[in-house]
Amino acid sequence: MSLVRRAQQWGVFAQTWHVFDATWQDPYKSALVIAHYLKGLQKPIHHPSNDCGDHVVVINSKDIALRGDEWQMRVYFHHNTYHHGASWTKAWELHKKDPTMIVQKAVYSVLGSTLKRRYDMKRLHVFYNDEIPEKIKANISSQIKQLRPVPVRLDHISQEELDQFPQLVKLPDKYVLT
């Protein structure tokens, strides 16, 4: 076997590290994409019994976006195994306690109830901001595309861009705003 062919084969079996920016992303739609990489479905050697998934590093989990009134309506269940130990926590409360937990729970539920879910979750690394430890940052070799574009805030647009924007209506010079 030639060296090039052997390197290709090693590349297929290697675990790659991907980074995903969760800024303004729906965690439940993003979890489908993240689980795809954690399971290794993008690899040609994928088989349900193989453990060939990749590592995924999720950054900025504190900036996730839920649709509509899901922050108030979505509830997470937890039971501490004691009598009357059941509790239901709203999404905004859970996010306030731990900004990484909603993304982790979304990915955990998408992975399904297989025996490999525990090993797939070990390859998920969620950070609430964009500060990644150097040991992990050195391994990252790929980026997962965001599902929706992040809108630009108006106070982040420069004055030159605002001046170059086409004006639809020419207001009179003596126009007074009330």
TrEMBL record:
Per the record, its GO cellular-component terms are: mitochondrial large ribosomal subunit
The taxonomy runs:
Eukaryota, Metazoa, Ecdysozoa, Arthropoda, Hexapoda
For this entry, the protein name equals 39S ribosomal protein L13, mitochondrial
Q: Name one GO molecular function term.
A: structural constituent of ribosome
Q: Which InterPro entries match?
A: Ribosomal_uL13, Ribosomal_uL13_bac-type, Ribosomal_uL13_sf
Entry's Gene Ontology BP terms: negative regulation of translation; translation
- Tell me the Gene3D superfamilies matching this sequence: Ribosomal protein L13
Ribosomal protein as a keyword? yes
The source's domain of life comes to Eukaryota
Give the family this protein belongs to, as stated in its UniProt record: Belongs to the universal ribosomal protein uL13 family.
Asked if the record carries the keyword Ribosomal protein, the reply is yes
Q: Which CDD domains match?
A: Ribosomal_L13
